[in-house]
Every structure is written in structure tokens, then in C-alpha cells.
């Protein structure tokens, strides 16, 4: 697999094959509904599809690798045959990652930030890029008073360590994601978006996932199904501030925003 091309900002469409994801849980549990949704997102302009079989919303309980695979495997099997865009697997479990790579998944999205060295070994063995997302603690407890000295500097220091480990393991491309909503207060999330460009110093593509997240709901006092404009504002600023990829549910609207911001950047 070649390194992914981030010569222009990319859109990663979210496909949650779960009963309990925070904004779309239960909608794409049936394989056909999930596959159809992936095709729809690609037609709307998604550059990548991210398939997930475990919710990591705040307070969620982990599911077994067996259950996660039962959810994602049939969807991946069809998608990998049918679509031309890269398909990623959103998992932190090496067993799940390996089975999906065997099926032909094109990249790994690890919300536990490559804490498990087996994820690095898999990315190196299968020669796939990997998203290293920062999370403080575990989903069950991560929102209980997260503390940083300086949220950007602390996360950069963490990335520096993981990048070193990734290089030593022979991983060819690491995409860095500060992990909006994963062990962060509202001000932390806002600062991460405001100062996103600082992550570019590390020399890797930067991905960000603001879609429908609770910091948007808290700033605007809006429920999860009413966060589209807030998400698009965050997407616009993220791309302006150097994001190479945005992970979103609402691909059609995001494509328009990203393309306009990019046109302004290039003008
Ligand atoms: N956010 C979620 C899940 N995976 N991966 C990356 N790289 N970055 C993110 O910000 C990110 C992620 C949570 O959102 P969602 O998939 O919509 O919800 P859930 O975890 O409830 O399935």
C-alpha cells in the first residue's frame, strides 16, 4: 500500500456498525444498510471510509473482539470488493485489526493512540498507514476531570514518543489526531482546534474528528441531532488551520465546506 495522499484535504466518512454509537447508533447495523451508506458517502465526496464496530463514546463499555468482528467483517468483505476509496478500520484491538487487514483494509485507526505495540507491528507487517489518536484514560472514565499542563504541548509530547516507536517498528505513515472529546474539557477541545497548526511541526498529516461532538453541543446548547452547523464551523477552521483530513458523519455538507476553504487557501 502506498502512503495516503494528503496533497489536498481529505474527508473520512464515518460508518458505525454499532447499536450504541452516540449519534448514529443502530442505523447501520444491518450489513446492507451499512454498505449502502458507504456508497452514499462516496457519491457525496468521501475520500476514505472508516468502519467501526465498537462505540468509544464517553462512558461506553468495551465489547469483545469476537463481537466487534461479527459486526464489521461482513461489511468490510463487501466494501473492499466494491469500493475504490481506502477503507479504514476503527479499532484498538490487534485481533480485530489483523482480521480486517487480512480482508484487505487499507489503514488502521487506533483511538488508543498506538499504546499497544502489536498495533505498530501489524501496521508495519501489512504496510498500511495508521491513525494515532490521543486519548487520556479510557472511554469509561475519560471525561472525569481531564487535566493537562498545556493540552497542545502535552499531546505533542505524547505523539513524539509514539512516532519514535512507530519509526522503530517500521511503520511507513502515521497520521496524528489530537482526539477531540477523548479526555478533554470543552476549553481543551476549543484550544485544540484553535491551535491545530502546532501539530504540523511533527511532520505528519493531521486528522481531526469534531463531528456532532458534545463540545459543540455544550457551546451552542444543542442536542446531538442539531450539531451540523457547529460541526461545519469546526471543519472549516480545522482545514484553515492545516487539517489534512476530517472525520465526519455528514459528508455532503462537509465536502462543500472543505472545497470552499481549500479554494480560499489557494486563492
Ligand atoms: N471519534 C470517534 C471514534 N473514532 N477516530 C478518530 N481517529 N478520531 C476521532 O475523533 C474519533 C474516532 C467517536 O465518534 P463516533 O464514531 O461518531 O462515535 P462512537 O464512538 O460512539 O461510535
Fraction of residues in β-strands: 5-15%
Mean pLDDT: 96
Distance between the termini: 33 Å
- Helix content, binned percent: 40-55%
Main sheet overview = 8 strands, parallel
User: Radius of gyration from the CA trace?
Assistant: 17 Å
* Low-confidence residue ranges: none
The shape, in one word, is: globular
Which structural class do you get from the secondary structure elements? alpha/beta
Oligomerization status of the protein chains: single chain
* Counted beta strands: 8
Number of helices: 9
Order of helices and strands: EHEHEHEHEHEHEHHEH
Give the strand order of the largest sheet, numbering strands 1, 2, ... along the chain. Answer: 6-5-4-3-2-1-8-7
Bound molecules: 6-hydroxymethylpterin-diphosphate
In short:
This protein is α/β, with parallel strands linked by helices.
Index terms:
alpha/beta; 8-stranded parallel sheet; 267 residues; binds 6-hydroxymethylpterin-diphosphate
Task: Provide an overview of this structure.
With 267 residues, this protein is α/β, with parallel strands linked by helices. It is 43% helix and 13% strand. It has nine helices and eight strands. The two termini are 33 Å apart.
Topology:
Blueprint: E1 10-16, H1 31-43, E2 48-52, H2 65-82, E3 87-90, H3 94-103, E4 107-110, H4 117-125, E5 130-133, H5 151-169, E6 174-177, H6 186-194, E7 207-208, H7 214-220, H8 228-240, E8 245-248, H9 251-266
Parallel strand pairs: 1-2, 1-8, 2-3, 3-4, 4-5, 5-6, 7-8
Helix pairs in contact: 1-2, 2-3, 6-7, 8-9
6-hydroxymethylpterin-diphosphate binds at residues 14, 16, 18, 21-23, 52, 55-57, 90, 109, 111, 131, 133, 177, 179-180, 207, 209, 247.
